[in-house]
Amino acid sequence: MKCMECEAELERIDSAHLLVCCGLTLQEYAVRYGLPLDHLVSPDQVAASQCAPECPVPVRYPSNQARAVLQGLRMAGRVAEEGDLTVVAGEVRTLDLLLWDLSWLREYGFCFRQDYDYGDGAHRIVARNHLLTPSANLRRADGYPGCPVPPPDLLDVLAVCVAHAAILQRDYLFLELHNPSDGTLVCDELLGQYDIRLVELDSGGGQTVLLRTLTAADTGRLLELLADRLAAMPGVAERFASQSPSATVVKELVFDAAHFITDHPAKCSNLHGGRYVLHVKVHDRIDPVTGCVVDYGYLKRVVNRRVVDRFDHHMLNYAAPELAWRSSTEMLCVFIWEQLIDYLPGLQELQLFETTQSWCIYSGPDLAEFQRRGPSALQRHFTDRTLGTSSLRGLIRPVSPPALRAVDQR
Ligand SMILES: [Zn+2]
Ligand SMILES: [Zn+2]
To answer: Looking at per-residue confidence, does 206 or 154 come out higher?
Structure first.
């Protein structure tokens, strides 16, 4: 087999050769030359992950920065226990960031490994980039008697968490944390010390906390606050600053629902139902690290939770007070937009098909505009407390009940 980097004829190409020859791991080499891993990985390298890792000896007192990196990765949900090992998951696209983590986590006895497994559902060889250490090393470091353990600087921890878990949508930074108490800590500290506002969004149950910067100005202040720390981590500052191409992604979701239109002169006044088809379009830059505008899975989860679960197999008129009077496609679109914009600041357009012949296209205010103006007045007529206070209401004369008459029995 010929190495395409150095043209040497080799029995097999592996990371051991490549790291010396060109500095790449086998997976990066495979991606660079568009080769399936199945053609490069030999059987004895598959499932080698079951071998014990060759880890360095941990230091007695991990430094503040090492503890900040470990805590930041925990906050980002990147640390897991697997048997006797503690594992930090990484990705091939951000390998240098994972190695930067390692430069600190060696103090805990972590080592890097690229393992190859025959994926259960994948039907191909998949690579896994991760850092490993025996869990006992962490317990030793945490519980060492006499070990000075001032908590690491929260900004150091947060910078690591942001580098690994933050997603920039438009001008808003989204951060999913894996421990509710971390969410409170981060929000309070940033607000109290730096006047940076984060809002907690509905993460859809479970243990995670979904945070977002309140405004674009808060995003700017947060990235500025962490700038030096992020600049030290490979690829991170560039990722958030990158002017990569933009694209529009569309997700189609359907729901079955019934409704009627109040005071409508034609058939729509009757209770009727059908299958609604909703197209949600999001326009944003392509994130250079994920290669996506927005993850379709996230998009689907948000729309399902905020809209479809509420509408599917329901009476639209009673699914939300805003729709009680008119559940026309137009009113539905305004309502749906307001349900989604906090979660999808790149939201560009909605298309809602009531039938294949009738549909509505709608673009509402962007998030900054929505925050300024609040929900649309269009849907407020019946919930407005001034309704019913007009003096004209005095013209309405209650109808007196018909007087009871004694029935003549004779
Ligand atoms: Zn080579
Ligand atoms: Zn209808």
So the answer is: 154
215 versus 12: the higher-pLDDT residue is 215
Side-chain half-sphere of 98: how many Cα atoms within 13 Å? Answer: 21
Which ligand is closest to the CA of 326, given by its number? 2
Which letter, b or e, does each residue of 203-219 get, where b requires 16 or more Cβ atoms within 10 Å of its Cβ?
Answer: beeeeebbbbbbbeebb
pLDDT at position 146 over 60 = no
Among all bound ligands, the one having the nearest atom to the CA of 19 is 1
What is the whole-number distance in angstroms between the Cα of residue 204 and the centre of ligand 1? Answer: 48
Determine the average pLDDT of the residues in 202-227: 93
Ligand nearest to C-alpha 327: 2
Pair of tokens at residue 348: 């560009």
Angstrom distances, CA of residue 128 to CA of 30, 116, 217, 251: 14, 6, 37, 29
Give me the pLDDT at residue 149, please.
66
Q: Is the pLDDT higher at 179 or at 250? A: 250
Mean local confidence (pLDDT), 198-209: 88
> CB-based contacts of 119: which residues, under 8 Å, 6+ apart?
125, 126
Whether the full predicted model's pTM is greater than 0.85, yes or no, is yes
Ligand minimally distant from the alpha carbon of residue 8? 1
Residues with CB under 5 A from ligand 1 (ion): 3, 5-6, 21
Measured from the alpha carbon of residue 23, the closest ligand is 1
329 alpha carbon – ligand 2 mean position (Å): 8
**Residue 80, H or E segment:** strand 79-82
Q: Whose CA is closest to 366, among 391, 340, 341?
A: 341
Nearest bound ligand to the CA of residue 15: 1
**Predicted pLDDT at 142:** 66
What is the phi-psi region of residue 374: left when phi exceeds 0, alpha when psi lies from -120 to 50, beta otherwise?
A: left
Distance (angstroms) between ligand 1 centre and the Cα of 36 equals: 18
